[in-house]
Each structure stands twice: as structure tokens, then as C-alpha cells.
């Protein structure tokens, strides 16, 4: 908190800090009730295979509509949840809810997709995390290969040996692993060859800049090329324009996610999109 406030003027600093702490405690209380009162829900953003134009994955994204605060950014929510310890309960709820939803779509006969779930570092580092995932998959009777777990590049760099072991266990169960927000953590791609990962998600800041900024462009094409040589799939996040899509396609990017195709939406809208998909490809 202190670092984030980055105060200079002593008086100003303390006032701000007090306010922040007070707000945080209030939000913590509100979050406690949010879980009880079922104010949390998930929305899903499609991820498209650029070669077939089909939805192959959806990312589950947490939404909190608080009667007091209105809609709260998941980044704020997750930070408060981590500080208060609610992250374990919320994280487990997210995993179960996302898998339940995916299983439901499958049972309704929609073309199966992978559901990708964001996992916070604290949650991943829980000693029984792998068992928890396994239990959820068993309870729901969902094929593990339709679950992908996203861990951010920055989070993956901490307690690495432990993480590697857990990733190996998850992989052997058949669960997929991806590195989220790749490029923001300054780790080399070579370093990631020791991780048993399926996918790198290029952070949307690079996609946003790549057509106007040579550095961003170089970073994006380098990540795509290196990933190809080590047989890791690439998802470009935050694709908003057809120009970005065309550029990424031309460079050999596998999948895209972004407002160009769709914002994160409620499960019913995913149903509509999957229906369209199956109409486009009657042979599948
Ligand atoms: P993320 O995992 O990198 O998710 C992608 C974020 O980019 C989402 O923001 C999504 O709405 C946004 N996005 C997607 N396409 C575009 C685009 O074309 N343009 C722009 N401007 N934005 C786009 P959202 O839903 O606000 O989530 C923010 C972050 O909160 C996520 O980033 C993730 O780090 C975290 N988060 C969300 N849900 C969960 C969760 O269930 N658990 C955990 N641990 N973290 C979560
Ligand atoms: Mg993500
Ligand atoms: Mg991301
Ligand atoms: Mg991101």
C-alpha cells in the first residue's frame, strides 16, 4: 500500500493512506457479503482460431456488481481478495463455476470449447491446489483437457520450483497451462522452455502498440517466432481492429482474443456464438 501511494508530502500522504486503508476495509466487508449474497458472476470472452475463425476457447472473467460500489474492476477485487484471504474461497468458486458452465454447454450439444480460468499466485501456491482442481473436475465429470489455467508471467516467476512441480502434476492430469500477460514481466522466452506450458498470451499492451511502435512490433513477432520453434501456442490479447488481426495472422499467430471479435459476455451469448459457429461448419 505504501509503495502504491508513493507519497511525498507527509501530511497529504497520511491522509491518502488513511483514506485508502479505510476504503479497503470497507470493501473487504462488502466483498464478504458479496460472496454470501451471490453478487459475483462470471462472463466469458471468446478466443478465436485465426485459421478457422471458430471459437476454440473462452476465458472466464470475474464480475462483481456491488450495491455500494457499483461494478468493481476484477483487478481491485482480486487485490482485496488476496489481502483478506477471500481469494481461496473466490478462486475455488470461479474454477467450479467455470467448469460447471463449460460442462453444461457441452451437455447441451454445443461444439466443445476450452474454458480458461485465471489463477492468482496465492491460490496456485496453496498446498492442495492440484487436488482441488482434480476434485472439481471429478465432481463435474469434465474432461480435464477442456480446462486451461492462466497464471501471469510475473506470478509464475515466484516460487518457481514449487510451481514447476504443480504444473507437471496438472499437465499429467491433462489440464492445460498458459502464461498470461506475457511480455510484461521481462523474463526471456527461453526461460519459459522449462515450464510445461501450452500457451503464451501476449499482453494486450503490445498488441495495442504494435502497428505504431517498432519495438512493440518486434516484441510481438519475436514472441510468435520463438513460440513456434518450441511448439507453444500463441494467443494475442486485446485485438481490437481488423488491421491488428490481419497483421497477427500474417505473422503466424494461432489465436486471438479481443473486442474486435467480442467483449466478455454472459453464457447465453456464448451459446448464440457457438450456434453460429456450428452453422458455419456443418461438417464438424
Ligand atoms: P486478463 O486475464 O489479462 O484478462 C483480459 C482482460 O482484458 C479482461 O479485463 C478483458 O475484458 C480485457 N480485454 C479483452 N479484450 C480486450 C480488448 O480488445 N481491449 C481492451 N481494452 N481490453 C480487452 P477484465 O475482465 O477487466 O479483467 C482484468 C484482469 O483481472 C484480468 O486480466 C485478470 O488478470 C484479472 N481477473 C479477472 N477475472 C479473474 C479471476 O477469476 N481470477 C483472477 N485471479 N483474476 C481475474
Ligand atoms: Mg487472463
Ligand atoms: Mg491477460
Ligand atoms: Mg492482461
UniProtKB/TrEMBL annotation:
Origin: domain of life: Bacteria
Locations listed in the record: Cell membrane
Span of domain EAL: 24-278
Protein name: Diguanylate cyclase (GGDEF) domain-containing protein
Source organism of the structure: Proteiniborus ethanoligenes
Residues shown, of full length: 559 to 842 of 842
